[in-house]
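Q: Got a minute? One more chain.
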Amino acid sequence: MTIGRANAARLAVAALLAAGIVAAWPWRGLFDPLAMTAFLAGNPLAPLIFILLHIAASLFFVPRAFLAVGAGLVFGMWWGIVWAALGSVVGAIAGFLVARYVYAGFVERADSARLKALLARAERGGWRMVTAVRLVPFIPHSLTNYALGLTRVRLGAYVVGSLLGQLPLTIAYADFGAAGRALFGTADWLHQVLWPSLVGLSALVLSLLIPIMARRRARHVQPASGA
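A: Always. Here it is, folded:
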């Protein structure tokens, strides 16, 4: 009976997630950076509401770029980076824990030897593997959260890897948002527009270069280790 109730609870959580993903489309306007700015501006609970929106976005496959740009628009350059980074990590933890709960025992039940090998490799990589996956810009944030939740990667390693891997793009998007915020106001162009734009562009380039450099380094290391 206990096992049956546990399975029913997991099915209920999975159904709620599916419903949330479907509902996120008609409610996508809530995650639009400009709409978010109008909604949160002047609200003393803005950081808390932003974190809750980020959790929902992470669970329901809303691109986190919207949230990071919105953070820059609402909170400015530095606080935008802080809240965007915190929101992305908290959202990543939410997806990870939900996947681990809903698909408890997935690895043991998996029939594919190749899948088990891939998951085992991910587990051995720890925070470095999580960081490397997060640095790939075209993998959806929510998909990564759920996929890594299927592994036995420790929560601490997952949090560290997620923070490090997501940080370059988070800085880039938040700074672009901050530059946009200043652009439409009475801005000090050098410090409030040009500087955030340059920092954001540098972070974006860095996020693209790190995976390329890592792959090249791995190709150089493999022959040496097999010699």
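A: The chain has one domain: 2-218.
Q: Perfect, thanks.
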